[in-house]
Design brief:
Belongs to the zinc-containing alcohol dehydrogenase family. The protein is α/β, with parallel strands linked by helices. The chain folds into two domains: about 210 residues, Medium-chain alcohol dehydrogenases, catalytic domain (Quinone Oxidoreductase, Chain A, domain 1); about 160 residues, Rossmann fold. It has twelve helices and 18 strands. It is globular and about 60 Å long.
Length: about 375
């Protein structure tokens, strides 16, 4: 089959790789009809050497048609149309049974739960930017789309970014009347803004250095915007703008955000890759007794983590991989009821064969890019 493979730093290539096969009786094979590039894929694009081997198939936002099922698969059948979550869950362990499926005990032999396309730290499961995908624990790790007429683009983002954004807002405890700062106006940030408004936030402020992403935040969510240009002063400016700090700050940026010169130099002699500047900004711009939710991916140890700021100002810090499987039915219902339409964030739909160009566009935010959907064949 054809698949997007990691070939080294900032080098994704579509290659011929082996077709997936049924390995366990609980597996299914999916023929991919749509898949997407996620912001967290960019962390692998830049820093994947820590967890990936050359030739590894990436991607964790796929959907498609069931082609084959193992002998113990009971809920899925050939021909079912499914969205595949980025979490891999067995459905039976303590974590899967208690809506914490991103830390499934049985989907990885590491300390972390199993994820598609994230390499050896997360179970070594090949990803879904490909023509076909093997889905472990397929009965639990899939969502059957009941409405066959609904287009892929309406439901594709149930795989990750919609439930991740929803969970981020819920986990942060956003409530009626809150002031919320969302760092990053990429796909997850845009959806987090929308869910924060729906949760009753009085003010939602979108922060990003890229003008067209802020324009999308304003048009899609009607939120306030703040264009980031000076990391040294932005936290103080946001603190003043919110008159004493935001009740909640949600970091939807992660380690590929803007990296100050001093931090770049420090990273040469530390285990850290990328930046933690969004966390440092949040530590200063949040209200005392406020909450910082870290949703952007950080894959390495961190130098200069602002522990003192968090401790001295009684800031609650929450973070982690969103458990999305149990949220997929709820958000699907919201889409059906037209409470949310995820399609306006799609700016580019491209053939899978053009994935290398798509990664370059997405990484550089060129051509007013926000979200790329890839189509096999």
């Amino acid at each position: 089959m054809r698949a997007v493979t990691w070939q080294g730093k900032e080098k994704m290539e579509v290659r011929n790789v082996s077709d997936p096969t049924i390995i366990e009786p609980t597996d299914a094979i999916i023929r991919i009809t749509a898949t997407a590039i996620c912001g967290s894929d960019l962390h692998l694009y830049h820093h994947g050497g820590a967890v990936l081997e050359e030739g590894y198939v990436v991607g964790h936002e796929p959907m498609g048609i069931v082609e084959e099922v193992g002998s113990q698969v009971q809920k899925l059948k050939k021909g079912d149309r499914v969205v595949i979550p980025f979490n891999i869950g067995c459905g039976h362990c303590h974590f899967c049974q208690n809506e914490m499926e991103s830390q499934c005990d049985n989907s990885s032999d590491q300390l972390y739960g199993g994820l598609f396309g994230f390499g050896k730290l997360n179970g070594n499961h090949w990803g879904g930017q490909a023509e076909f995908l093997r889905v472990p624990f397929a009965d639990f790790t899939s969502f059957v789309v009941p409405d066959t007429a609904i287009p892929d683009e309406k439901v594709l983002f149930l795989s990750d970014i919609l439930p991740t954004a929803y969970w981020s807002v819920q986990n942060a405890g956003v409530k009626q009347g809150d002031t919320v700062i969302i760092l990053g106006s990429g796909p997850v940030g845009l959806f987090a803004q929308k869910f924060a408004v729906m949760a009753g936030a009085k003010r939602v402020i979108a922060v990003d250095p890229v003008a067209h992403r802020l324009e999308k935040a304003q048009s899609y969510n009607q939120v306030e915007t703040f264009q980031l240009d000076d990391l040294a002063t932005s936290a103080d400016d946001l603190y003043e703008l919110t008159k004493g700090g935001a009740d909640v700050i949600i970091d939807c940026v992660g380690m590929d955000g803007l990296e100050p010169v001093k931090e770049k130099a420090k990273n040469l002699v530390s285990l850290q890759s990328g930046t933690i500047s969004p966390i440092q900004m949040a530590a200063k711009a949040v209200k005392k007794f406020g909450t910082v939710q870290i949703t952007g991916v950080y894959m390495t140890p961190a130098s200069s983590y602002p522990l003192q700021e968090f401790f001295m100002r009684n800031v609650a810090v929450k973070h982690g991989q969103a458990p999305v499987i149990h949220l997929m039915p709820k958000i699907y219902e919201m889409i059906q009821k037209e409470e949310i339409d995820p399609t306006p964030i799609i700016t580019h739909t491209m053939p899978l064969e053009e994935a290398a160009a798509a990664y370059n566009i997405f990484d550089k935010k060129e051509d007013n890019n926000i979200k790329v959907v890839l189509k096999p064949n």
